[in-house]
Amino acid sequence: MKSVAILGGGVAGLTAARMLHQRCAISVFEANDTIGGLCRTRQTPEGFLFDIGGGHIFHSIYPEILNIMLEYAGGADNLLQHKRNTRIFMYDRFIQYPFENGLGDLPPGVRYDCLMGYINAWIEREKNGESDYNSFYDFIMRRFGSGIADHFMLPYNRKIWCTDPRNMSVDWIKNRVPQAPLEDVVKSALGMNTEGYKHQSTFYYPRKGGIQFFINALAEPFKDSIRTSTPVVSIAKDGKSWLINGEKFDRVVSTIPLDVFCTLYEGVPKSVLRCANDLSHISLLTVLVGLKIPETEPYSWLYLPQEEQGEANRLTYFTNYSAQLAPKGFSSVLVEATLSADDANSVTRQRVDTIVSDMIRIGLVKCSDIIMIDWDIVPYAYLVHDHAMTRNRDMIIQSLGDESIDFVGRFGSFRYYNMDQVIKQVRETINTRYI
Protein backbone atom coordinates (compact mmCIF):
# COMPACT_ATOMS: atom_id res chain seq x y z
CA MET A 1 0.00 0.00 0.00
CA LYS A 2 1.50 3.31 -1.09
CA SER A 3 1.93 6.12 1.43
CA VAL A 4 0.48 9.50 0.43
CA ALA A 5 1.05 12.85 2.12
CA ILE A 6 -1.87 15.22 1.59
CA LEU A 7 -0.79 18.79 2.24
CA GLY A 8 -3.70 20.88 3.51
CA GLY A 9 -6.98 19.92 5.15
CA GLY A 10 -9.41 22.06 3.18
CA VAL A 11 -12.03 20.87 0.69
CA ALA A 12 -9.42 19.78 -1.87
CA GLY A 13 -7.24 17.85 0.56
CA LEU A 14 -10.16 16.20 2.31
CA THR A 15 -11.76 15.17 -0.98
CA ALA A 16 -8.49 13.56 -2.04
CA ALA A 17 -8.26 11.81 1.32
CA ARG A 18 -11.86 10.61 1.05
CA MET A 19 -11.05 8.96 -2.28
CA LEU A 20 -7.70 7.48 -1.22
CA HIS A 21 -8.06 6.39 2.39
CA GLN A 22 -9.14 2.82 1.59
CA ARG A 23 -6.40 2.13 -0.95
CA CYS A 24 -3.43 4.13 0.37
CA ALA A 25 -1.83 4.92 3.71
CA ILE A 26 -2.73 8.61 3.89
CA SER A 27 -1.61 11.40 6.20
CA VAL A 28 -3.33 14.80 6.00
CA PHE A 29 -1.17 17.70 7.18
CA GLU A 30 -3.25 20.68 8.40
CA ALA A 31 -1.62 23.77 9.90
CA ASN A 32 -4.71 24.98 11.76
CA ASP A 33 -6.25 23.31 14.78
CA THR A 34 -9.46 22.81 12.77
CA ILE A 35 -9.86 21.27 9.32
CA GLY A 36 -11.72 23.05 6.55
CA GLY A 37 -9.45 25.74 5.14
CA LEU A 38 -11.72 28.42 3.67
CA CYS A 39 -14.71 26.37 4.86
CA ARG A 40 -14.24 26.60 8.62
CA THR A 41 -16.87 27.52 11.18
CA ARG A 42 -16.29 28.67 14.72
CA GLN A 43 -18.63 29.55 17.56
CA THR A 44 -18.48 32.92 19.29
CA PRO A 45 -18.71 33.20 23.09
CA GLU A 46 -22.29 34.44 22.63
CA GLY A 47 -23.30 31.25 20.79
CA PHE A 48 -23.33 32.54 17.19
CA LEU A 49 -21.80 30.38 14.44
CA PHE A 50 -19.40 32.09 12.08
CA ASP A 51 -18.17 30.81 8.68
CA ILE A 52 -14.84 32.59 8.62
CA GLY A 53 -14.37 32.24 4.85
CA GLY A 54 -17.61 34.03 3.91
CA GLY A 55 -21.00 32.79 2.82
CA HIS A 56 -20.26 29.38 1.28
CA ILE A 57 -23.17 27.56 -0.34
CA PHE A 58 -23.71 24.32 -2.26
CA HIS A 59 -24.60 24.70 -5.93
CA SER A 60 -23.12 23.45 -9.17
CA ILE A 61 -23.62 23.45 -12.92
CA TYR A 62 -22.51 19.80 -12.73
CA PRO A 63 -25.41 17.63 -11.48
CA GLU A 64 -23.12 14.70 -10.69
CA ILE A 65 -20.87 16.89 -8.53
CA LEU A 66 -23.84 18.36 -6.68
CA ASN A 67 -25.01 14.82 -5.93
CA ILE A 68 -21.55 13.93 -4.63
CA MET A 69 -21.54 17.03 -2.40
CA LEU A 70 -24.90 15.97 -0.97
CA GLU A 71 -23.53 12.47 -0.45
CA TYR A 72 -20.46 13.82 1.34
CA ALA A 73 -22.78 15.83 3.61
CA GLY A 74 -24.56 12.64 4.64
CA GLY A 75 -27.60 13.17 2.44
CA ALA A 76 -30.00 15.98 1.54
CA ASP A 77 -31.84 15.64 4.86
CA ASN A 78 -28.84 17.28 6.54
CA LEU A 79 -29.17 20.33 4.30
CA LEU A 80 -31.65 23.12 3.73
CA GLN A 81 -32.58 24.05 0.16
CA HIS A 82 -33.07 27.73 -0.64
CA LYS A 83 -34.16 29.77 -3.62
CA ARG A 84 -31.54 32.41 -4.27
CA ASN A 85 -32.81 35.87 -3.38
CA THR A 86 -29.83 38.10 -4.04
CA ARG A 87 -29.66 41.84 -4.57
CA ILE A 88 -27.17 44.57 -5.35
CA PHE A 89 -27.52 47.46 -2.92
CA MET A 90 -26.75 50.79 -4.55
CA TYR A 91 -28.36 54.20 -4.90
CA ASP A 92 -30.15 53.38 -1.62
CA ARG A 93 -32.21 50.65 -3.24
CA PHE A 94 -32.15 46.88 -3.73
CA ILE A 95 -31.38 45.99 -7.36
CA GLN A 96 -32.15 42.52 -8.73
CA TYR A 97 -29.09 40.37 -9.33
CA PRO A 98 -27.50 39.82 -11.83
CA PHE A 99 -27.25 43.55 -12.48
CA GLU A 100 -28.24 43.41 -16.15
CA ASN A 101 -31.45 41.60 -15.13
CA GLY A 102 -32.29 44.35 -12.64
CA LEU A 103 -32.06 47.52 -14.70
CA GLY A 104 -35.72 48.29 -14.04
CA ASP A 105 -34.90 48.80 -10.35
CA LEU A 106 -32.44 51.61 -11.10
CA PRO A 107 -33.09 55.37 -11.16
CA PRO A 108 -34.24 56.41 -14.67
CA GLY A 109 -31.02 58.17 -15.65
CA VAL A 110 -28.84 55.27 -14.58
CA ARG A 111 -31.18 52.83 -16.30
CA TYR A 112 -30.82 54.79 -19.56
CA ASP A 113 -27.02 54.83 -19.31
CA CYS A 114 -26.88 51.09 -18.76
CA LEU A 115 -29.36 50.14 -21.48
CA MET A 116 -27.83 52.36 -24.15
CA GLY A 117 -24.32 51.26 -23.28
CA TYR A 118 -25.33 47.60 -23.49
CA ILE A 119 -27.08 48.08 -26.85
CA ASN A 120 -24.12 50.00 -28.29
CA ALA A 121 -21.69 47.32 -27.15
CA TRP A 122 -23.92 44.63 -28.68
CA ILE A 123 -24.11 46.53 -31.99
CA GLU A 124 -20.34 46.95 -32.03
CA ARG A 125 -19.80 43.21 -31.56
CA GLU A 126 -22.39 42.34 -34.22
CA LYS A 127 -20.71 44.72 -36.65
CA ASN A 128 -17.07 43.84 -35.99
CA GLY A 129 -17.33 40.34 -34.52
CA GLU A 130 -15.78 38.94 -31.37
CA SER A 131 -12.06 39.33 -30.84
CA ASP A 132 -9.60 38.66 -28.07
CA TYR A 133 -9.83 40.84 -24.99
CA ASN A 134 -6.73 42.68 -23.82
CA SER A 135 -7.76 42.78 -20.17
CA PHE A 136 -10.66 42.26 -17.80
CA TYR A 137 -11.38 45.99 -18.22
CA ASP A 138 -11.56 45.53 -21.99
CA PHE A 139 -13.93 42.57 -21.51
CA ILE A 140 -16.25 44.59 -19.25
CA MET A 141 -16.42 47.56 -21.59
CA ARG A 142 -16.98 45.55 -24.76
CA ARG A 143 -19.38 43.00 -23.27
CA PHE A 144 -21.49 45.21 -21.01
CA GLY A 145 -21.01 48.73 -22.35
CA SER A 146 -19.99 51.92 -20.61
CA GLY A 147 -23.13 52.32 -18.47
CA ILE A 148 -23.05 48.96 -16.68
CA ALA A 149 -19.26 49.25 -16.52
CA ASP A 150 -19.25 52.67 -14.84
CA HIS A 151 -22.17 52.11 -12.49
CA PHE A 152 -21.50 48.54 -11.37
CA MET A 153 -18.89 46.28 -12.96
CA LEU A 154 -15.83 48.51 -12.64
CA PRO A 155 -16.39 49.85 -9.10
CA TYR A 156 -17.39 46.42 -7.79
CA ASN A 157 -14.43 44.63 -9.34
CA ARG A 158 -11.95 47.29 -8.24
CA LYS A 159 -13.25 46.81 -4.73
CA ILE A 160 -13.21 43.01 -4.62
CA TRP A 161 -9.90 42.48 -6.46
CA CYS A 162 -7.98 45.35 -4.82
CA THR A 163 -6.57 46.25 -8.23
CA ASP A 164 -7.52 47.92 -11.50
CA PRO A 165 -9.29 45.53 -13.93
CA ARG A 166 -6.81 46.73 -16.55
CA ASN A 167 -4.20 44.74 -14.65
CA MET A 168 -6.22 41.51 -14.88
CA SER A 169 -6.39 38.94 -17.66
CA VAL A 170 -9.53 37.21 -18.91
CA ASP A 171 -8.31 33.64 -18.37
CA TRP A 172 -10.63 33.11 -15.41
CA ILE A 173 -13.97 34.49 -16.57
CA LYS A 174 -15.44 31.49 -18.41
CA ASN A 175 -18.68 30.47 -16.63
CA ARG A 176 -18.09 33.23 -14.05
CA VAL A 177 -19.24 36.32 -15.90
CA PRO A 178 -22.01 35.15 -18.25
CA GLN A 179 -23.79 37.64 -20.44
CA ALA A 180 -27.55 38.11 -20.47
CA PRO A 181 -29.28 38.02 -23.88
CA LEU A 182 -30.03 41.47 -25.30
CA GLU A 183 -33.76 40.74 -25.13
CA ASP A 184 -33.54 40.09 -21.38
CA VAL A 185 -31.66 43.33 -20.79
CA VAL A 186 -34.23 45.38 -22.72
CA LYS A 187 -37.05 43.64 -20.85
CA SER A 188 -35.43 44.34 -17.49
CA ALA A 189 -34.97 48.02 -18.36
CA LEU A 190 -38.70 48.17 -19.12
CA GLY A 191 -39.54 46.62 -15.76
CA MET A 192 -40.30 43.13 -17.08
CA ASN A 193 -39.03 40.29 -14.89
CA THR A 194 -36.08 38.26 -16.17
CA GLU A 195 -33.76 35.83 -14.38
CA GLY A 196 -30.04 35.25 -14.85
CA TYR A 197 -27.45 32.82 -13.44
CA LYS A 198 -30.07 30.07 -13.34
CA HIS A 199 -27.50 27.50 -12.17
CA GLN A 200 -27.43 29.48 -8.90
CA SER A 201 -31.20 29.86 -8.63
CA THR A 202 -31.33 27.27 -5.82
CA PHE A 203 -28.65 26.30 -3.35
CA TYR A 204 -28.10 24.16 -0.27
CA TYR A 205 -26.63 24.89 3.14
CA PRO A 206 -26.14 22.66 6.22
CA ARG A 207 -29.14 22.56 8.53
CA LYS A 208 -26.87 22.86 11.57
CA GLY A 209 -23.22 23.45 12.39
CA GLY A 210 -22.42 25.89 9.60
CA ILE A 211 -20.20 24.90 6.68
CA GLN A 212 -18.07 22.98 9.21
CA PHE A 213 -20.80 20.33 9.29
CA PHE A 214 -20.02 19.45 5.68
CA ILE A 215 -16.29 19.43 6.34
CA ASN A 216 -16.61 17.13 9.35
CA ALA A 217 -18.94 14.77 7.48
CA LEU A 218 -16.54 14.66 4.54
CA ALA A 219 -13.62 13.78 6.84
CA GLU A 220 -15.40 11.32 9.15
CA PRO A 221 -14.25 8.08 7.42
CA PHE A 222 -10.55 8.98 7.76
CA LYS A 223 -10.46 11.36 10.73
CA ASP A 224 -7.70 9.36 12.44
CA SER A 225 -5.40 10.10 9.48
CA ILE A 226 -5.62 13.88 9.94
CA ARG A 227 -2.85 15.75 11.73
CA THR A 228 -4.15 19.14 12.83
CA SER A 229 -1.83 21.86 14.15
CA THR A 230 0.84 20.33 11.92
CA PRO A 231 2.07 22.83 9.34
CA VAL A 232 4.28 21.69 6.51
CA VAL A 233 7.69 23.21 7.21
CA SER A 234 9.92 21.32 4.77
CA ILE A 235 9.54 19.49 1.46
CA ALA A 236 12.28 17.53 -0.27
CA LYS A 237 12.83 14.67 -2.72
CA ASP A 238 14.72 11.54 -1.64
CA GLY A 239 15.16 9.52 -4.79
CA LYS A 240 11.66 8.60 -5.91
CA SER A 241 10.21 9.35 -2.48
CA TRP A 242 9.15 12.59 -0.84
CA LEU A 243 10.20 13.91 2.55
CA ILE A 244 7.49 15.96 4.25
CA ASN A 245 8.78 17.43 7.51
CA GLY A 246 11.46 14.73 7.26
CA GLU A 247 8.94 11.87 6.98
CA LYS A 248 9.10 9.64 3.90
CA PHE A 249 6.10 9.20 1.54
CA ASP A 250 5.65 7.58 -1.86
CA ARG A 251 3.39 10.30 -3.23
CA VAL A 252 2.14 13.79 -2.46
CA VAL A 253 -1.13 15.61 -3.09
CA SER A 254 -0.50 19.30 -2.49
CA THR A 255 -3.34 21.73 -1.82
CA ILE A 256 -1.29 24.34 0.06
CA PRO A 257 -0.71 27.61 -1.84
CA LEU A 258 1.56 26.99 -4.81
CA ASP A 259 3.88 29.86 -3.90
CA VAL A 260 4.21 28.52 -0.34
CA PHE A 261 5.02 25.05 -1.68
CA CYS A 262 7.88 26.54 -3.69
CA THR A 263 9.37 28.36 -0.70
CA LEU A 264 9.32 25.12 1.34
CA TYR A 265 10.69 22.85 -1.40
CA GLU A 266 14.39 22.19 -0.90
CA GLY A 267 16.48 22.96 -3.95
CA VAL A 268 13.75 24.64 -5.97
CA PRO A 269 15.26 26.32 -9.06
CA LYS A 270 15.60 30.09 -8.85
CA SER A 271 13.56 30.51 -12.02
CA VAL A 272 10.67 28.64 -10.39
CA LEU A 273 10.98 30.67 -7.20
CA ARG A 274 10.82 33.89 -9.21
CA CYS A 275 7.56 32.74 -10.79
CA ALA A 276 6.21 31.77 -7.36
CA ASN A 277 7.06 35.18 -5.94
CA ASP A 278 5.10 36.80 -8.78
CA LEU A 279 1.88 34.91 -8.00
CA SER A 280 -0.63 37.28 -6.40
CA HIS A 281 -3.45 36.67 -3.97
CA ILE A 282 -5.76 38.69 -1.77
CA SER A 283 -7.03 38.11 1.74
CA LEU A 284 -10.51 38.25 3.23
CA LEU A 285 -11.77 40.01 6.32
CA THR A 286 -15.10 38.62 7.53
CA VAL A 287 -17.13 40.40 10.19
CA LEU A 288 -20.02 38.66 11.95
CA VAL A 289 -22.63 41.00 13.41
CA GLY A 290 -25.04 39.38 15.87
CA LEU A 291 -28.47 41.00 16.06
CA LYS A 292 -31.04 40.88 18.85
CA ILE A 293 -33.91 40.54 16.38
CA PRO A 294 -35.38 37.22 15.22
CA GLU A 295 -35.46 38.03 11.50
CA THR A 296 -33.54 40.15 9.00
CA GLU A 297 -34.33 41.22 5.44
CA PRO A 298 -35.50 38.27 3.31
CA TYR A 299 -32.46 38.28 1.03
CA SER A 300 -29.70 35.69 0.69
CA TRP A 301 -26.89 38.19 0.25
CA LEU A 302 -26.17 41.67 -1.10
CA TYR A 303 -23.36 43.01 -3.28
CA LEU A 304 -22.03 46.43 -2.29
CA PRO A 305 -20.29 47.97 -5.31
CA GLN A 306 -20.09 51.66 -4.46
CA GLU A 307 -16.94 53.18 -2.99
CA GLU A 308 -18.99 55.46 -0.75
CA GLN A 309 -20.52 52.39 0.93
CA GLY A 310 -17.15 51.64 2.53
CA GLU A 311 -14.70 48.83 1.89
CA ALA A 312 -17.15 45.94 2.36
CA ASN A 313 -18.17 44.30 -0.92
CA ARG A 314 -20.78 41.83 0.31
CA LEU A 315 -23.26 41.34 3.14
CA THR A 316 -24.82 37.92 3.76
CA TYR A 317 -28.05 37.56 5.75
CA PHE A 318 -26.44 34.61 7.44
CA THR A 319 -29.31 33.25 9.51
CA ASN A 320 -31.43 33.10 6.36
CA TYR A 321 -29.19 30.15 5.46
CA SER A 322 -30.12 28.43 8.73
CA ALA A 323 -31.79 29.78 11.86
CA GLN A 324 -29.48 27.53 13.90
CA LEU A 325 -26.52 29.79 13.11
CA ALA A 326 -27.67 32.07 15.96
CA PRO A 327 -29.20 31.53 19.41
CA LYS A 328 -32.98 31.29 19.38
CA GLY A 329 -34.60 34.69 18.90
CA PHE A 330 -31.46 36.23 17.39
CA SER A 331 -30.08 36.63 13.87
CA SER A 332 -26.82 37.62 12.20
CA VAL A 333 -25.27 39.15 9.11
CA LEU A 334 -21.84 38.39 7.70
CA VAL A 335 -19.92 41.28 6.12
CA GLU A 336 -16.97 40.66 3.80
CA ALA A 337 -14.12 42.91 2.70
CA THR A 338 -11.17 41.83 0.59
CA LEU A 339 -7.69 43.05 1.46
CA SER A 340 -4.36 43.11 -0.29
CA ALA A 341 -2.08 40.41 1.07
CA ASP A 342 0.16 43.04 2.68
CA ASP A 343 -2.83 44.75 4.28
CA ALA A 344 -4.12 41.60 5.97
CA ASN A 345 -1.57 41.81 8.78
CA SER A 346 -2.55 45.31 9.84
CA VAL A 347 -6.30 44.94 10.48
CA THR A 348 -7.36 46.54 13.76
CA ARG A 349 -10.58 46.51 15.78
CA GLN A 350 -11.02 50.14 14.76
CA ARG A 351 -11.11 49.12 11.12
CA VAL A 352 -13.67 46.41 11.87
CA ASP A 353 -15.82 48.93 13.74
CA THR A 354 -15.60 51.28 10.74
CA ILE A 355 -16.93 48.54 8.46
CA VAL A 356 -19.85 47.93 10.82
CA SER A 357 -20.45 51.69 11.08
CA ASP A 358 -20.61 51.84 7.28
CA MET A 359 -23.35 49.20 7.30
CA ILE A 360 -25.25 51.30 9.85
CA ARG A 361 -24.68 54.49 7.87
CA ILE A 362 -26.07 53.06 4.62
CA GLY A 363 -29.08 51.59 6.41
CA LEU A 364 -28.40 47.85 6.27
CA VAL A 365 -27.99 47.39 10.03
CA LYS A 366 -29.49 49.26 12.99
CA CYS A 367 -27.05 50.15 15.74
CA SER A 368 -29.67 49.41 18.39
CA ASP A 369 -30.03 45.82 17.09
CA ILE A 370 -26.35 44.89 17.47
CA ILE A 371 -25.52 42.56 20.35
CA MET A 372 -22.05 41.35 19.30
CA ILE A 373 -19.31 41.74 16.70
CA ASP A 374 -16.64 39.19 15.85
CA TRP A 375 -14.18 39.00 12.99
CA ASP A 376 -11.55 36.84 11.34
CA ILE A 377 -9.03 37.02 8.51
CA VAL A 378 -8.36 34.40 5.83
CA PRO A 379 -4.84 35.14 4.51
CA TYR A 380 -5.36 33.26 1.22
CA ALA A 381 -8.89 33.86 -0.07
CA TYR A 382 -8.76 34.71 -3.79
CA LEU A 383 -6.03 34.46 -6.39
CA VAL A 384 -5.48 37.44 -8.68
CA HIS A 385 -5.41 36.76 -12.41
CA ASP A 386 -2.86 39.35 -13.45
CA HIS A 387 -1.45 39.10 -16.95
CA ALA A 388 1.48 36.90 -15.90
CA MET A 389 -0.40 34.53 -13.58
CA THR A 390 -1.22 31.72 -16.01
CA ARG A 391 2.31 31.67 -17.41
CA ASN A 392 3.89 31.65 -13.94
CA ARG A 393 1.54 28.95 -12.63
CA ASP A 394 2.04 26.66 -15.59
CA MET A 395 5.81 27.07 -15.48
CA ILE A 396 5.91 26.10 -11.78
CA ILE A 397 3.70 23.02 -12.15
CA GLN A 398 5.49 21.83 -15.29
CA SER A 399 8.88 22.26 -13.60
CA LEU A 400 8.01 20.59 -10.28
CA GLY A 401 5.40 18.07 -11.33
CA ASP A 402 6.11 14.41 -11.95
CA GLU A 403 4.26 11.11 -11.64
CA SER A 404 4.46 11.21 -7.83
CA ILE A 405 2.88 14.60 -7.06
CA ASP A 406 -0.40 16.32 -7.88
CA PHE A 407 -1.28 19.98 -7.36
CA VAL A 408 -5.01 20.48 -6.79
CA GLY A 409 -7.44 22.95 -5.25
CA ARG A 410 -7.90 26.69 -5.61
CA PHE A 411 -4.46 27.59 -4.32
CA GLY A 412 -2.73 24.24 -4.73
CA SER A 413 -3.18 24.47 -8.50
CA PHE A 414 -3.69 28.25 -8.50
CA ARG A 415 -6.99 28.15 -10.34
CA TYR A 416 -10.01 30.22 -9.36
CA TYR A 417 -12.29 27.31 -8.50
CA ASN A 418 -15.42 27.27 -6.36
CA MET A 419 -16.10 24.36 -4.00
CA ASP A 420 -17.83 22.24 -6.64
CA GLN A 421 -15.06 22.84 -9.17
CA VAL A 422 -12.44 21.88 -6.59
CA ILE A 423 -14.24 18.61 -5.87
CA LYS A 424 -14.58 17.93 -9.61
CA GLN A 425 -10.89 18.64 -10.22
CA VAL A 426 -9.74 16.44 -7.34
CA ARG A 427 -11.98 13.53 -8.31
CA GLU A 428 -10.81 13.67 -11.93
CA THR A 429 -7.18 13.86 -10.82
CA ILE A 430 -7.40 10.93 -8.40
CA ASN A 431 -9.41 8.79 -10.82
CA THR A 432 -6.83 9.44 -13.55
CA ARG A 433 -3.61 9.27 -11.53
CA TYR A 434 -4.40 6.56 -8.97
CA ILE A 435 -5.70 3.73 -11.12
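That was protein one. Protein two is written in the same sequence-then-structure order:
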Amino acid sequence: LLWVLLLSTFLGLLLQRLAARLGVVTGLHLAEVCHIYYPKHPRRILWVMIEIAIIGSDMQEVIGTAIAINLLSNQR
Protein backbone atom coordinates (compact mmCIF):
# COMPACT_ATOMS: atom_id res chain seq x y z
CA LEU A 1 0.00 0.00 0.00
CA LEU A 2 2.98 2.29 0.25
CA TRP A 3 3.11 2.58 -3.53
CA VAL A 4 -0.47 3.91 -3.52
CA LEU A 5 0.54 6.63 -1.06
CA LEU A 6 3.54 7.61 -3.16
CA LEU A 7 1.53 7.62 -6.39
CA SER A 8 -1.31 9.68 -4.92
CA THR A 9 1.15 12.18 -3.45
CA PHE A 10 2.88 12.56 -6.79
CA LEU A 11 -0.42 12.99 -8.65
CA GLY A 12 -1.60 15.55 -6.09
CA LEU A 13 1.59 17.56 -6.56
CA LEU A 14 1.16 17.37 -10.33
CA LEU A 15 -2.43 18.60 -10.12
CA GLN A 16 -1.41 21.50 -7.86
CA ARG A 17 1.35 22.47 -10.26
CA LEU A 18 -0.97 22.39 -13.27
CA ALA A 19 -3.60 24.45 -11.43
CA ALA A 20 -0.96 27.01 -10.46
CA ARG A 21 0.22 27.29 -14.05
CA LEU A 22 -3.36 27.71 -15.21
CA GLY A 23 -3.83 30.51 -12.69
CA VAL A 24 -0.66 32.30 -13.78
CA VAL A 25 -1.53 32.09 -17.48
CA THR A 26 -5.25 32.93 -17.33
CA GLY A 27 -5.47 34.94 -14.11
CA LEU A 28 -8.38 32.71 -13.04
CA HIS A 29 -8.52 29.89 -10.53
CA LEU A 30 -9.60 26.37 -11.47
CA ALA A 31 -13.25 26.81 -10.47
CA GLU A 32 -13.58 29.96 -12.59
CA VAL A 33 -12.07 28.21 -15.61
CA CYS A 34 -14.48 25.27 -15.20
CA HIS A 35 -17.39 27.73 -14.91
CA ILE A 36 -16.40 29.46 -18.15
CA TYR A 37 -15.55 26.43 -20.29
CA TYR A 38 -18.05 23.76 -19.16
CA PRO A 39 -21.81 23.77 -19.76
CA LYS A 40 -24.21 23.75 -16.81
CA HIS A 41 -24.85 19.98 -16.55
CA PRO A 42 -21.18 18.83 -16.55
CA ARG A 43 -20.38 21.55 -13.99
CA ARG A 44 -22.96 20.12 -11.63
CA ILE A 45 -21.59 16.61 -12.08
CA LEU A 46 -18.09 17.92 -11.30
CA TRP A 47 -19.44 19.71 -8.23
CA VAL A 48 -21.08 16.52 -6.89
CA MET A 49 -17.93 14.47 -7.53
CA ILE A 50 -15.77 17.05 -5.74
CA GLU A 51 -18.14 17.17 -2.76
CA ILE A 52 -18.04 13.36 -2.48
CA ALA A 53 -14.22 13.44 -2.59
CA ILE A 54 -14.11 16.10 0.14
CA ILE A 55 -16.49 14.10 2.35
CA GLY A 56 -14.41 10.95 1.82
CA SER A 57 -11.21 12.77 2.70
CA ASP A 58 -12.72 14.26 5.85
CA MET A 59 -14.07 10.87 6.95
CA GLN A 60 -10.64 9.32 6.47
CA GLU A 61 -9.03 11.99 8.65
CA VAL A 62 -11.61 11.67 11.43
CA ILE A 63 -11.47 7.87 11.50
CA GLY A 64 -7.66 7.91 11.41
CA THR A 65 -7.55 10.36 14.29
CA ALA A 66 -9.97 8.25 16.32
CA ILE A 67 -7.88 5.13 15.74
CA ALA A 68 -4.68 6.99 16.69
CA ILE A 69 -6.22 8.34 19.91
CA ASN A 70 -7.48 4.86 20.77
CA LEU A 71 -4.04 3.34 20.20
CA LEU A 72 -2.25 6.05 22.16
CA SER A 73 -4.59 5.90 25.13
CA ASN A 74 -4.22 2.08 25.48
CA GLN A 75 -7.95 1.51 25.84
CA ARG A 76 -9.40 -1.86 24.91
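The first helix runs from residue 2 to 26. Keep this in mind for the problem set.
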